[in-house]
């Protein structure tokens, strides 16, 4: 795999993403009509988390949400950190440590995220999933952990109801197979199913983090309150 080949593929993917963003901005979608929030699985009518008005995203808003998930500042920083970690520990060692290996690793990390979120967007557009995670108004560590885990597997639908998170399941269990198409064959110690299950666990941990993030930010000095979602 040469740097020129990887750079060409990466450039094509980035251009496709930006042209799609411009197209999405050009669409004149009407403002989404609000839908009354419906009961979450396992919650009661007295649950404060279901008392709000739910506003679904338009097609354009879903696309721009996926763009932010790929090109957001925190994502760019994540690519850089992941790339430097892989380079420092020579992962995968088949790519070596020549001058272009850093770029190959960086484009591999970026391409993985780009394909993941575009695939998620395509599925969400087809089955009308809402890509956002909605924090609860629950109290207690166990209740909030249960909520975060449940709402990794069950997500909003555009009509305000709930549905299985098909886009997450497809990408978590499909991405290991796709990534192995360009990464060295002997690099992976886990099977596709094991890697997908690990990815699902990471998604649950991420939702739990954002569930308690407001509480964490209250305990931090204002200068450190930079994380948002």
Give a structural overview:
This protein has one domain (59-224). The protein contains seven helices and four strands; from the N terminus they run H-E-E-H-H-H-H-E-E-H-H. The chain has a two-stranded antiparallel ribbon. With 229 residues, it is mainly α.
Tag the structure with descriptive keywords:
two-stranded antiparallel sheet, two-stranded antiparallel ribbon, 4 strands, globular
Task: Give a short overview.
By secondary structure, the protein is mostly helical. 59% of the residues lie in helices and 4% in strands.
Structural class: mainly alpha
**Straight-line distance between termini:** 36 Å
Report the strand count. Answer: 4
Mean pLDDT: 77
Number of domains: 1
Instruction: Report strand order across the widest sheet.
Output: 1-2
Alpha carbon gyration radius = 19 Å
Counting H and I runs of at least 4 residues, what is the number of helices? 7
SSE layout and pairings?
Blueprint: H1 3-26, E1 35-36, E2 53-54, H2 59-71, H3 73-88, H4 101-127, H5 141-153, E3 154-156, E4 162-164, H6 166-179, H7 192-218
Antiparallel strand pairs: 1-2, 3-4
Helix pairs in contact: 1-2, 1-4, 2-3, 2-4, 3-4, 4-6, 5-7, 6-7
């Amino acid at each position: 795999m040469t740097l020129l080949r990887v750079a060409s593929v990466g450039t094509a993917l980035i251009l496709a993403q930006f042209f799609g963003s411009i197209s999405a901005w050009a669409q004149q979608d009407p403002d989404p009509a609000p839908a009354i929030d419906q009961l979450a699985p396992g919650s009661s009518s007295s649950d404060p988390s279901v008392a709000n008005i739910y506003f679904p995203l338009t097609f354009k808003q879903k696309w721009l949400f996926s763009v932010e998930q790929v090109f957001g500042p925190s994502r760019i920083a994540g690519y850089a950190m992941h790339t430097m970690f892989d380079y420092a520990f020579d992962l995968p060692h088949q790519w070596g440590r020549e001058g272009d290996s850093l770029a190959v690793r960086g484009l591999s990390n970026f391409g993985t995220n780009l394909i993941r979120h575009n695939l998620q967007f395509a599925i969400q557009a087809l089955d009308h999933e809402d890509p956002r995670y909605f924090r609860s108004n629950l109290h207690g560590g166990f209740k909030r952990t249960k909520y975060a885990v449940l709402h990794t597997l069950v997500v909003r639908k555009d009509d305000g109801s709930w549905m299985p998170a098909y886009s997450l399941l497809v990408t978590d269990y499909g991405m290991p197979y796709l990534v192995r198409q360009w990464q060295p064959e002997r690099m992976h110690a886990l099977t596709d199913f094991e890697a997908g299950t690990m990815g699902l666990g990471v998604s649950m941990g991420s939702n739990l983090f954002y569930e308690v993030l407001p509480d964490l930010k209250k305990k931090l000095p204002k200068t450190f309150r930079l994380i948002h979602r």
